[in-house]
Amino acid sequence: MKGVITINLMLILSSLASAQTAGEIVESVRQVTVLQKNQTLAGVLRKGADKVPLNLFLRGKDIQFTLNGGSEGFHLRLKENEQEFWDIKDGKAKRFPSDKIGASIADTDVTYEDLALKFLYWPNPQHAGTQKIGFENCWRIHVINPEKTGSYREVSIWVTKKHRALARVVGYGPRPNRRPLKQFEIIDVMKVNGAFTVETMKVSRFDEERKVKGITYLEFDKPKRRGR
User: Fold this and answer.
1) Which of 1, 24, 101, 187 is packed most tightly, with the most Cβ within 10 A?
2) Where are the domains of the chain?
């Protein structure tokens, strides 16, 4: 059975590697998450000396975040081109309030839409060139928010050509200023179930003069090997 799973994973990753259009590249990033079946990651949101514990439960197309030991959380149900976004409180789920999507989590620089990576489900992604981020050759993909919810009107996404992993994300405000509001930088990645996922991400928030106003780190622990 283990051999069959390994072969299937190799076939899926091989098909992702052939992605070329902007839509296919974004889809390949989404599929990496879906590959993480029955995986739980523990981590923190760290701003200065303050830490907010969080857990990420990956169950194929069902993803759940819990914060502060489970006192708060939200649930994502992934479909082909959209997310269903549910708020979880006191063990009950309801549609996530649109006015809460762009809200800060526990006074950090990270919002609910940031954790959910909602921009990966915005329609009509467009190629915006290539660029080297660190040592990685990346595609730059640009997407426009089809709704009026959340903080960002547009987002640029840098995806590594080698692993189809996020390298950088910049969220912008409305035109004509199109001011950068926030930047996500992937500092470290780890390999989980044969696919690369975020280990450490730096989130920088900018003021009106485009200077860094706040920094928060999203940090996940490497999952323990089974049997240990």
Assistant:
1) 101
2) 2-220
> Per CATH, the architecture of 2-220 is what?
Clam (2.50)
Q: Please state, in angstroms and rounded to a whole number, the distance separating the CA atoms of residues 201 and 101.
A: 20
Residues 131, 134: Cα–Cα separation, whole Å: 10
Structure tokens at 72: 């708060």
Tally of CB atoms within 10 A around 159: 23
Q: How far apart are CA 218 and CA 199, in angstroms?
A: 8
Point out the residues of the chain with pLDDT beneath 70.
Answer: 1-19, 33-37, 80-81, 225-228
Give which of 142, 138, 214, 159 is closest to 183, Cα–Cα: 214
Among positive and negative, which fits the CA dihedral 12, 17, 23, 29? Answer: positive
Q: Are 29 and 16 in contact (CB under 8 A)?
A: no
Q: What is the pTM of this model?
A: 0.85
Measured between alpha carbons, how far is 19 from 37 in angstroms, rounded to an integer? Answer: 22
Q: Left, alpha or beta for 227 (phi > 0: left; psi -120 to 50: alpha)? A: left
Q: Which residues contact 88 (CB under 8 A, 6 or more apart)?
A: 64, 66, 72, 73, 74, 75
